[in-house]
Amino acid sequence: FSERSIKQASIFFGGAGFLAMSILLSRRAVARHIRKSRIQFYQPNHFSQAAKESQIAQAAAGREPLVALEALNLATLNTVSFFIMLFGGAAWALDVSSLDDLRHKARASLYGAAGATDEEAEREVAAWVYKVMGTQGLEDEKQQQPQPESS
Q: Transmembrane residues, as ranges (predicted)?
């Protein structure tokens, strides 16, 4: 492994570690909420069933916005960590280690290895687009425009 490959793989493994920790954190939060939702075995039972249910509903209503915020935070954390891992794996697979490498590879794929554009191919594509769209070419538009009279 070269230094470049290790740098690319480190982003992947950093994202994988971050994903593992965020999944562990999410599992702990879900287990904590499941434990809180269970009815306690040793609770006083001298209240009526309706009073117990209303008391539980009031306690849950106060926690609902916080539970929703926690769920949103955990989902965002899991998603971001997954995409860090995905980006690291794609960078390693495509042999890209910096933004300049990415620009160079994109230009090479668009304009060829020399970086020159193919003018004839661009004219053919432009003519095809004009034909499909039902518009006239730039040359036809220039010929149809009235020439201003000079005095």
A: 6-26, 71-94
In order of 45, 51, 76, the CA distances from 55 in angstroms are 13, 6, 32
Distance CA 7, CA 21 (A): 21
Cα 32 from Cα 50, distance rounded (Å): 26
Q: Spell out the long-range contacts of 49-55 with Cβ–Cβ below 8 A and sequence spacing 24 or more.
A: none
Q: Which two tokens stand for residue 54?
A: 């209303």
| pLDDT averaged over 10-residue windows placed end to end, the chain, 151 residues | 80 92 94 79 63 66 77 93 90 82 80 67 85 67 56 51
The pLDDT of residue 61: 63
33 CB neighbour count, 10 Å cutoff: 13
CA distance 141 to 144: 5
Q: Given this model, what pLDDT does residue 29 score?
A: 92
**Residue 146 gets which letter from DSSP?**
P
pTM (2 decimals)? 0.56
CA atoms of 35 and 32, how far apart (whole Å) = 5
Q: Give the DSSP letter of residue 136.
A: -
